[in-house]
Structure prediction request, 192 residues.
Amino acid sequence: MSLQDKIKILLQPLGLVENDLTYYVSSRLNEAFKYLEFVISHKHLELPTHALNESRRQYNSSVVLDELLRLYNKGLFGYYQKVVGLADVDAYVLGLNFVFGEAILGGPVAVVYLARLRSEFYGEMRNREILVERTCKEVVHELGHTFGLRHCPNPKCVMHFSNTILDVDFKEMLFCLRCQSTLMHSFTSLTI
Ligand SMILES: [Zn+2]
Ligand SMILES: [Zn+2]
Prediction:
């Protein structure tokens, strides 16, 4: 794959997300993945208000994802192959207490939620570096799903399912060899 063929990924803040966080996340990801190009969207988008479950004080992730897909299908995100929403809130899907993120398997959109990636959520000091690291891992994980990857049994692989923040911290930002090869196969079918 040549450099011109880089797959373009849009990082779309949903509601208020600190600019320097999105900046560090995209720079980190651009360094780590030479075949992907991460770009920060400057479009102002809010989280859909109907996605908020007031009694749970969490957003229904599936509603957020549906809204992103609707906008994607309307052509709002132009030529980007994948769009990953970033939202500084807590979210759930039916049947789970919370999610760090969600994606449409093999689809164009995904979303990552920052609330539970923050150290202060666990009673620790705010730590920008840890937040950037965790956000990068979750963005890559959800992106992997959009390229058709499922969960991986290797706990170090970015595609391993994270039940807790300890799982997020244990895994690396990278795909294991098996996931990497599935991913490359998926790219080949994309570019043919
Ligand atoms: Zn997953
Ligand atoms: Zn893997």
Summary: The CA atoms of residues 60 and 95 lie 11 Å apart. The pocket of zinc ion (ligand 1) is lined by residues 141, 145, 151, 161 (CB under 6 Å). The chain has one domain: 3-191. The first strand starts at residue 7 and ends at 13.
